Each structure stands twice: as structure tokens, then as C-alpha cells.
Amino acid sequence: MEDQAEELRELMGNTPSSTQKKDESSSHKTRIIAITSGKGGVGKTNMAVNMAIAYAQLGKKVILIDGDLGMANVNVLLNVVPQYNLMQVINRQKTMSEIILDTEVGIKFIAGANGFSKIANLSVEELDYFAKQFAQLGNADIIIIDTGAGIANNVLQFVAAADEVYVVTTPEPTAITDAYGMIKIITTELGERNINIKLLVNRVHSAEEGKKISDRIITIVGQFLNYKVDYIGFVYDDSVVSASVIRQKPFMVVNPTSKPAQCIKHIVGRIEKTDLGTSDGVSSFLKKFLRKK
Fold first, then answer.
1. How far apart are CA 141 and CA 122, in angstroms?
2. What is the pLDDT of residues 153-194, one digit of tens each?
3. Separation between Cα atoms, residue 64 and residue 32, nearest integer Å
4. Domains defined along the chain, listed by start
5. Ranges of Basic and acidic residues compositional bias (predicted)?
């Protein structure tokens, strides 16, 4: 696995196309966000979709990747039917530009694939092709990855490679417990990488409830795991969310003035105020992705 990562570093550092990309946009950085959760049913995908739309409404170039490889449903919320996914790129059947879908909500969408982890076993030539294809995403301002729920291996790969990780939970005791469990696994398995973890509390009835839940988790994480987790914000429990799911129209589009939409805008605004540090965007993502078995 480490050999594959080293090969990819060489390929991405020395190919003419990658050199041109650096020269053309040396100051451009792609922010890569992974949105995850300890359990299903907490609204993780809804958060990913609507955050992507909120970024697009700010004038950002946004790509949303469905990384929930077992129960992919981003396309359901967007009401699109993807004909191709990342597996066709991995198998060199399609180019990246051929699988990216434009959507009516202003974002681009890439469907995931159950075999995505196969890139760890690609030959040098196959890695070269995939690296060049994936590097095309470097023109985006924001890439949001909706991971699967829980601690599957591919979830940890996405978490390890992203610039920032947002763990979604709700006020339910089981969701809080599972959020802590997810953070524990991340810090145990990937602690040496100093993953940038933030909490997003969904379906709250007040700002105070969101803060109380986040404080509880952050305190326990600090006490028992000796790890710093930040609170990024909350989203109100509101009937417009379930109604938008039924209509397959994100609430940022159909109810832009609703409480949940305002919450998402506030969260995105807070994210935008944080520095990306030394991240190299898409190139850095691929290198880190291959390091995690």
C-alpha cells in the first residue's frame, strides 16, 4: 500500500499535466470536506447536499461525491439518475468529465462505486490514469464527500484524506453515543494524522440544545481521548426538511428562508472563515487516501 502511495506521489508530481495545473492556479486551493456519522438516519446526506448547494449559492464551484458506497442515496435527494460512476474511471472505461453530472441546483455530482477501494491495487499505469482524471477536480473550490455511516474501511479512507471532517449527530442518546464512538475510532485509527474533526448537531429544537449536546461530546472526547473537537453549528428540526426529501428537492432550494436553510448558511459561513492551512487540495487528498488500508 505504501509503495502505491509513493508511486502516486511521483506520478502526480512529475507529469506535465500536473505541472501545468500548478502553474495555472498556484494560489488555488480546493477545500475537501468529508461528512460522516456514527449511525444512519441522522440526516448526514441531507447535510452534505444542502451544504453543497449553500456553497454554490456563494458563487463557489462545488463537486459533491457520493461516498456512501453501500447505501448511496445522494442521487435520490437530487432527483437525478447517474448513468456512470467512479468505478468506470477506475476501470479506465470513462474519463472524469464523462461521469460528472451537472444538476439543476448549481452543483456537480459524482456517483460513488462499491469498488472505489480498488485503487489501492491498481498498476502504475492505472494509477497514472486515475490520478490524472481525479486531478481534473482541482478546478473546484469545494469538494464535499458524503461518506457512509459507521466505521467501514472506505469511510475511514475518506475521513483520513479530507481536509475537514464533520460528524453529524442528533439529540437522540443512541446518536450521541454513536457519534462519540465514531470519533473514538477516528482518533484511535488515525490519531497521528491530527484529523480536523467538527461536530454538527442536527434536528435540534433550540440553539441551547445544540450547544449542550456538542459540549457534552466535546468534553468527553477531551477527557477520555485527549483530542480536540470543535463545534461547527446546529440545524433546526423542521417539517420542511422531511417535506423536501419527499419532493426530492433540497430545502436550500425550495425553502431558502426556512430555519434549517438559515442554519446551513451560517455553518458554511463559519467554515469559510477557517483557514485551510497547508492543504494541497486534490493532490493531497489522493496521497492521503492511499495511505489508509
1. 28
2. 678 888 999 999 999 999 999 999 999 999 999 999 887 788
3. 10
4. 2-274+281-288 (3.40.50.300)
5. 1-10
